[in-house]
Amino acid sequence: MWLSSMGARARPLATAVIAAAAVIAGASMAWSQQVVALVDGTPITELDIAQRTKLEQMGAPKPPSRQAVIDMLIDEILEVREAKQYSIDVPESEVESAYANIADHMGADAKKLTEILDHAGSSATALKNRLRAQLAWNALVRGRYKATLEIPDSDVEAALQLHQNQGDEKKDVGYEYTMRPIILIVRTGSPAAAYEARKRDADALRTRFQNCADGIPFARALNDVAVRDQVLKFSADLPDQLRAILDGTEVGHLTPPETTAEGVQMFAVCGKRQTKNDTPGKKQIRDEIFEKKFSAQAKRYLQQLRREAMIEYK
Prior knowledge:
alpha+beta; Triger factor/SurA peptide-binding fold; Chitinase A, domain 3; 6-stranded antiparallel sheet; 3-stranded antiparallel sheet; 12 helices; 9 strands
């Protein structure tokens, strides 16, 4: 009887607690959906601002101002909308690939990156929206202003000469590499020991490999070894680390083994020709000039879109 009486008195209390929790949850939901600004009818909500603020905090020494975050979101809406006007609609697969690349650079996978963002108070959606806008905007500006953004060789030569006169030496000699990728295949799902064994096989092959004429047929005859078609690469197109490896590998020999999704890969350096047409120094200069021209053109374009847009603050 006592228990029954207690239960009867507890039920109204429990009902009141649940009702209060529902009110609080409803208020929180209403706040997150509160519209702060409209960009040609497209809303920016409190939730959008909160999640983008947390996202920006993850890569900055100090948090951006609220207005700076709102401006970012306005710009991205305008960028994506303008890109669609020119039939540029970034595929979801491209956005997911960019998202996975960020995760990879952080030493994680996409799932882990999503967990990190959620824990920080942001979301995968916030980051993907930013990536989608960047991809669309870059494609649009590059496409619409292709002729304007072209850089004459004379500009590159002049800038390179200026750097050299100021004591900032740029590499003015590059190489054209003729290579054959060689993969010691490791089956998907194999344990780490399998990769270690194949690395030992790769080291043994490097010892025997003295020239491409004899080494390529020998490698092709080995079990679970694939020799890919010949590729040509210019040093200007390669990252510094890979360029250093190729420069340190004699013609007719193999580069050190590295692990890939297929197994253990090496490159047979079958030719190395010096060239001054496209060098690492020239590429760096060309990239620097392009970035300045691109940024200036993109800024002018976005300012025009802002002048033409209907932006309302609530």
